């Protein structure tokens, strides 16, 4: 029987532990910590870190892709990173329709697991999102809220191209991954940064650059919402809802429609007087 000997004592690994002497949950947390730290270290420049973290999420879990969205308040969300094109489109889809597991996880501050978008409860809970996601090849989505002490600042969204939920150990690993991504977002000094005595300001600037790069993708949306507020005489939330509705009706993303509004190719002036928004 294996064990670690010290004078007069035989240490026995806890029941259910692996060869390392750690419980499965502790092993999962260690693997996540090592993988995510390596992803940050190997990324090189700060701008590459978010993408490296998303790719690491996929390596750690039995999922097809992953994305991280940051919430800036009701109706305001930016994609921080995505592991692939479908993950990015799914994040944009949820932003466009204003619904889906990501939004529910933000609202509830708890994990939302949709194991089958093709039928059943998930397809009925988010019918529009589920229909569009399935069209992208997505069959299951698992959204985990990010943030310390119950404060939700975003979500980690995992998707699979097949129907099915996460096994218990995989869910534990996913929660560990969620914690690691939260640390990255919250700018906590761990690992090499702490050992090397990195200045807090330096790390804050790094995180700020990640967020700024992500927000740049949605700057057009905020500007377009401002124009619609004037054209339609509505508040920001109503303006965003109108933009989302038109984008979905046209089969486009909110970002694409916003660029048309900013370039004056699309105006909502006529809609304010009972007509249809025109080009």
Automatic annotation (TrEMBL):
The keyword ATP-binding does not apply. Residues 201-262 form the ANTAR domain. The keyword tRNA-binding does not apply. Keywords: Transcription, Transcription regulation. Signal peptide: none annotated. Pfam families: ANTAR (PF03861), GAF_2 (PF13185). InterPro entries: ANTAR, GAF, GAF-like_dom_sf, GAF_ANTAR, WH-like_DNA-bd_sf. This is GAF domain-containing protein.
């Amino acid at each position: 029987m294996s064990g670690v000997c010290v004078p007069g004592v035989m240490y026995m690994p806890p029941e259910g532990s692996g060869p390392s002497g750690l419980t499965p949950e502790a092993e999962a947390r260690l693997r996540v910590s090592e993988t995510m730290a390596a992803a940050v270290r190997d990324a090189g420049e700060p701008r590459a870190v978010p993408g490296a973290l998303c790719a690491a999420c996929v390596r750690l879990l039995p999922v097809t892709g992953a994305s991280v969205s940051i919430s800036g308040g009701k109706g305001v969300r930016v994609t921080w990173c995505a592991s692939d094109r479908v993950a990015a489109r799914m994040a944009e889809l949820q932003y466009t329709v204003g619904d889906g597991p990501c939004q529910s996880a933000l609202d509830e501050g708890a994990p939302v697991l949709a194991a089958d978008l093709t039928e059943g409860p998930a397809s009925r809970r988010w019918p529009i999102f589920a229909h569009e996601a399935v069209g992208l090849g997505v069959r299951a989505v698992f959204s985990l809220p990010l943030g310390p002490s119950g404060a939700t600042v975003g979500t980690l969204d995992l998707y699979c191209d097949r129907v099915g939920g996460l096994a218990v150990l995989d869910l534990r690993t996913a929660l560990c991954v969620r914690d690691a991504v939260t640390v990255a977002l919250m700018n906590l000094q761990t690992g090499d940064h702490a050992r090397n005595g990195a200045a807090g300001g330096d790390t804050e600037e790094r995180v700020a650059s990640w967020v700024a790069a992500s927000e740049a993708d949605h700057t057009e949306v905020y500007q377009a919402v401002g124009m619609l507020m004037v054209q339609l005489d509505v508040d920001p939330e109503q303006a965003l809802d109108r933009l989302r509705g038109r984008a979905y009706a046209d089969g486009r993303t909110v970002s694409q429609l916003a660029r048309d509004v900013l370039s004056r190719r699309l105006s909502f002036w006529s809609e304010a007087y009972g007509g249809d928004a025109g080009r």
